[in-house]
């Protein structure tokens, strides 16, 4: 008897949708960085730098940001409930953390943080999230409409799974985009319908451009289900004006599109003259309720002043869907049984932090302010550094956690990139990494208008790291330009 020994599973025979998408923030640049890290470990002193500075991800704590004490106090008490009633606990933990942890533990099944919970998330934690949303927006929010999730990523994937029926279903997405969107749309078998943000006007979202894309897509036979808006923007860092948001709300209402509002950077707004407004608040302020418009808002514990990205916490608030749809979303969520508990607890704390009058309030506020003022300092230093480079212009930084400078490279550099079989931004980013140890994401990973080159660099490295990065960046760029000036 003979049988075929060649493995039947190869990269050619797996689901080809997995092979099509790219996710550059964790892509080739990271593989390159890991190779260099190994080299530093095996042959110390062989490279002109001693460490890699990972500016490819918005990963605050990996780059030195300290977690907020109150959040960690509550988490540790929830994981060790027997500590709560011990005498030492009163010396080690704040009264509010003890009180909050006690309340949370009471609401957990079996009063333990190691249990499965409701697939939608623990009810009392969802109530805390809903109350936080209501306090933020000035409009009611219901725990029944909240799903707690393992970060915003899993919520976004879930909504794509719900909305996309076939490749004839299109989802409007901004370009440049956060590449989870194109990846998720491909994986779920839909069609991404891109609309361009306008770089020259500070990455504004122009509604006539969205309309043009919608009409073109409809004319080609697609059914457009939803419009993704990322506000504040990643990688583009802009904060939408309220008038712009009103236009988007009117547009989506008229066209019958769900707004998929990616609001994960809602607590990362740095400009004096703009503030974050949720799409739900804008819609309700215009007088539209759940019968007029469907909105799904995504939020996360990964960003803001908390930066607890490894905890994988988040929520989505679903407005304007019938109970029958909510039931199906619940069923989908139940396939992973439940979101992780630390993430559930954290998102409840993010939406219901210590208040004025609470014992922890002052320390909490100081910690939060320290993160913001330091972030702003680092953003300004990096923005100034990028802007000072020949042929580089840096976007105005209003929100989120990244700079997205545009590169205008010499023809000879573009040719050299071509010879290497890569785009100019990829060529530049790998050269930068090889010379300085600074890992940034080539802008093409976010699919900007073709023919333009950018890099995305997070503002998160600590103050001293930024101070060390700036001269290295400048020296590298000068040498690069000299080499290719011709
Ligand atoms: N939406 C946007 C716009 C994001 O930037 C991210 C993460 C997510 C959703 C998903 O976040 P969580 O799943 O952690 O909640 N952005 C990554 C990035 O671009 N760099 O680092 C994180």
UniProtKB/TrEMBL annotation:
Its cofactor is pyridoxal 5'-phosphate. Residues 95-463 form the Aminotransferase class I/classII large domain. Keywords: Aminotransferase, Pyridoxal phosphate, Transferase. It is an enzyme of class 2 (transferase). Homodimer. Its EC number is 2.6.1.2. InterPro entries: ALAT1/2-like (IPR045088), Aminotransferase_I/II_large (IPR004839), PyrdxlP-dep_Trfase (IPR015424), PyrdxlP-dep_Trfase_major (IPR015421), PyrdxlP-dep_Trfase_small (IPR015422). Pathway: Amino-acid degradation; L-alanine degradation via transaminase pathway; pyruvate from L-alanine: step 1/1; Photosynthesis; C4 acid pathway. This is Alanine aminotransferase 2. Belongs to the class-I pyridoxal-phosphate-dependent aminotransferase family. Alanine aminotransferase subfamily. GO terms for molecular function: L-alanine:2-oxoglutarate aminotransferase activity; pyridoxal phosphate binding. GO terms for biological process: L-alanine catabolic process. Coiled coil: none annotated. It holds the Pfam family Aminotran_1_2. Transfer of C3 units between the cytosol of mesophyll and bundle sheath cells to maintain a nitrogen-carbon balance in the C4-dicarboxylic pathway.
